[in-house]
Fold this sequence. Notes:
The chain has 124 residues and is of the alpha/beta class. 33% of the residues lie in helices and 15% in strands.
Amino acid sequence: xxxxxxxxxxxxxxxxxxxxxxxxxxxxxxxxxxxxxxxxxxxxxxxxxxxxxxxxxxxxxxxxxxxxxxxxxxxxxxxxxxxxxxxxxxxxxxxxxxxxxxxxxxxxxxxxxxxxxxxxxxxx
Length: 124
């Protein structure tokens, strides 16, 4: 389930002009997804927005805030009484700095999308 907006351009959808605050999910939005899907199964992934963009950008042009994922986890922990209930997807991971990836993994990321990096690797 994707929550929020991933910036940049992908598959003809251009989110490059979206306001910056829409690039960051809020704990309440993630919690609503949990409330809706967890009665079916607690095994689902959430692509929460934390400044992610599609494509590769120069360092400094993208303001990733993977520490938000930990805040989302704590918000749910307070309600559920169990640690790290969310499984996150890191959308727009191409070109990300190692410390952002490490922070995201520690906060519960179980899948990372790196499509642009993959496309560049196979370019002729």
